[in-house]
Design a protein that fits this description.
CATH architecture of the largest domain: Roll
CATH superfamily of the largest domain: Mannose-Binding Protein A, subunit A
Distance between the termini: 195 Å
Number of domains: 2
Helix content: 55-70%
Order of helices and strands: HHEHEHEEEEE
CATH topology of the largest domain: Mannose-Binding Protein A, Chain A
Radius of gyration: 66 Å
CATH class of the largest domain: Alpha Beta
Number of strands: 7
Organism: Danio rerio
Protein name: P-selectin-like
Amino acid sequence: MDSEDIYANVPSRDIQDSTGPQTQNHNQDEEKARKHRGSRCVLVLLVILGLICALLLLFITLQHISITAERDLFKTYKNTVEELNHTISSLQHDNTDLETDKQQLEDKYNSLSLEKLELENNITSLSAELMKARSKPGWFFMSTEAMSWSESRQFCRNHGADLVIIKSEEKQRFISSFVKERVWIGLSDIQTEGTMKWVDNSILNNQGFWLKGEPNDQDGIEDCIELISTEPALNNWNDLPCSKNRKGICEK
């Protein structure tokens, strides 16, 4: 019997029995490896999915922060614009008021300028009339400061006049009406004691308008006459030392 016959007579079952367990174990290992690879793939996918979710959450968070910041910035910008508009409106209103005030001031200035011009014209006219009046007799004015009787008379002479002469009740009342203080008049007894003379050398020929008890030539040194405006108009002359300081009433 040759070798082929020997191998042919060997039962096929025995061959199957000798190779079956090895193949089964190999298949199990492959299955396990396949499951292991599947688990690893799932794990990798889960990790990737987790990363994607984390990135997505981070993106959403950043977008939310960005949107919130933009919204706050927009609100701030809107408030700023509203405040600016309000300020502009207020400034425009103030400018309108200022323009109105400016126009009113200009009108008032123009009005005052016209009044000033009228006053200047009036002053010029009055000055001309004053010059004319001063050139005529009967013009009265007062010395600028209190001086002795002689100095007051010299002041009047320096201005083309002399101390006033009063020879009528009408003139006495008139002088007394506008004088507000004690003033020298043009009457004295400097030349001859007891003889009252006016500055034109005419003698007092009436009783005069003396205070009660005057003239009394107290202490023998009262030779010049003052008019006291606070006393009654017809009784306000008083003799006084000529060195006393009084303003003088000048008459041109």
